[in-house]
């Protein structure tokens, strides 16, 4: 990694961009809330059903509405106030958290309700991701964007570290909460689980309220675009834009297939409970491990952005991610599993910063919502559909076989992308050529 020349006193600094800092606060608070929701949802579903298939269905339930709604949402983001749309997505997530908190406290949460509310989460993300991606470049000067992306990704990783760890700890406090609220001195496992989940969802709701307030504090930004009806041509403009740019298409699709094949998030409750033999606290730490590695690398990239050989850095980072997944599949040691997951997060952070910088720097402002929507579909497919794929293959091959096969698949994708997208492999600078 090469460090650019030291900026002079006239160069704007990230810490001076107040609205950008408000967006960071919203990302941290909302991201931590979302991660806590995911920890509780996964553990609660596995507690209720004991089924890898049902864990996969949680991811599928979030992906399908995102797949259907994200492109229209991207068109909306290019036409309306992006702050208000982002706030609306957080409000919808707050409704989900409130219903889960009440349902868990009342012991009427079941697999059907979890899947139904997962659909609402998918709807919220369909709006959140393009609005959030399109808003950030308007809050900083273009020269600061790679640093801004790295800093934003780093703060998000801090939320992904703290959120699962806090969520797992709160879930484990279920027996104590049950006793404090006047239940029997020795609550049943089911009572303890309900109250542990309720505590996680309640704290998530509080964090989402903080995120909404931070977003509404950002000054309105006008989008320099003509108002247009949501025709098929307008809605799919982002797809055509990406298809015509091989570097952007290669970067986005590489992330899609790498995380689709190599993701192990949905299976972490199984690894935690049945293979590594740790409780919800251990699950929280495992979910936080990739974020810890990503945070450390993200902080480095915020100070020392990648200036040369960006394509090679991107493909190499994805290969390391695949190797880390193979290592995770083969270990039965909790701390080795934690370490290789942290390495996977560090590699993924390099990929995220390069990919997001390339996409944002190559896209004009009036297209950022629609391009961000397509990017969101790819990300959603890799995450939520990847969780379904993991659950489905684990039902056939077992969790170890599923993750091992996925890691090998990631390595195969990297080799294939070197051949399919030579312009991406040769890309030197993140900034487009004049």
TrEMBL record:
List the Gene3D superfamilies hit by this protein, alphabetically: MFS general substrate transporter like domains (1.20.1250.20)
Instruction: Please give, as recorded in its UniProt entry, the membrane topology of this protein.
Output: Multi-pass membrane protein
Entry annotated with the keyword Membrane: yes
Q: Where is the protein found, in the record's own terms?
A: Cell membrane
Specify one Pfam family. Answer: MFS_1
Q: Which SUPFAM superfamilies match?
A: MFS general substrate transporter (SSF103473)
CDD domains tied to this protein: MFS_MefA_like
* Keyword annotations: Cell membrane, Membrane, Transmembrane, Transmembrane helix, Transport
Name listed for the protein in its UniProt record: MFS transporter
Q: Which InterPro entries match?
A: MFS, MFS_trans_sf
Q: State which residue ranges cross the membrane.
A: 20-43, 55-77, 84-102, 108-127, 148-173, 193-219, 247-272, 284-302, 314-343, 396-418
Look up the domain of life of the source.
Bacteria
């Amino acid at each position: 990694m090469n460090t650019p020349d030291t900026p002079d006193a006239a160069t704007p600094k990230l810490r001076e961009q107040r609205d950008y800092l408000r967006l960071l606060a919203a990302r941290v608070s909302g991201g931590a809330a979302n991660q806590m929701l995911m920890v509780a949802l996964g553990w609660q579903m596995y507690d209720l059903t004991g089924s890898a298939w049902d864990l996969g269905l949680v991811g599928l339930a979030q992906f399908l509405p995102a797949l259907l709604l994200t492109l229209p949402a991207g068109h909306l983001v290019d036409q309306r106030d992006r702050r208000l749309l982002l706030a609306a997505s957080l409000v919808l997530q707050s409704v989900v958290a409130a219903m889960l908190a009440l349902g868990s406290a009342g012991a009427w949460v079941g697999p059907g309700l979890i899947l139904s509310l997962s659909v609402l989460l998918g709807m919220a993300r369909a709006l959140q991701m393009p609005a959030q991606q399109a808003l950030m470049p308007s809050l900083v000067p273009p020269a600061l964007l790679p640093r801004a992306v790295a800093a934003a990704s780093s703060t998000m990783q801090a939320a992904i570290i703290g959120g699962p760890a806090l969520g797992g700890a709160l879930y484990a406090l279920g027996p104590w909460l049950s006793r404090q609220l006047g239940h029997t001195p020795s609550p049943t496992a089911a009572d303890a689980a309900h109250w542990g989940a309720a505590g996680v969802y309640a704290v998530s709701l509080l964090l989402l309220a903080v995120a909404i307030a931070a977003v509404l504090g950002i000054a309105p930004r006008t989008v320099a675009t003509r108002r247009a009806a949501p025709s098929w041509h307008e809605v799919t403009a982002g797809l055509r834009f990406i298809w015509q740019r091989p570097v952007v298409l290669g970067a986005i699709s590489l992330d899609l297939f790498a995380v689709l094949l190599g993701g192990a998030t949905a299976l972490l409750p199984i690894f935690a409970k049945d293979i590594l033999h740790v409780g919800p606290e251990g699950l929280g730490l495992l979910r936080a491990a990739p974020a810890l590695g990503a945070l450390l690398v993200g902080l480095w990239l915020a100070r020392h952005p990648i200036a040369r050989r960006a394509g090679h850095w991107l493909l190499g980072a994805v290969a390391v991610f695949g190797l880390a997944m193979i290592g995770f599949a083969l270990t039965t040691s909790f701390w080795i599993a934690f370490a290789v997951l942290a390495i996977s997060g560090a590699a993924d952070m390099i990929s995220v910063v390069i990919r997001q910088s390339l996409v944002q720097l190559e896209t004009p402002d009036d297209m950022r919502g629609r391009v961000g929507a397509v990017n969101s579909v790819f990300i959603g497919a890799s995450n939520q559909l990847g969780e379904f794929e993991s659950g489905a293959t684990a039902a056939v091959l077992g969790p170890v076989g599923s993750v091992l096969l996925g890691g090998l698949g990631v390595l195969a994708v990297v080799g294939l992308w070197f051949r399919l997208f030579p312009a991406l492999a040769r890309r030197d600078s993140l900034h487009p050529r004049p």
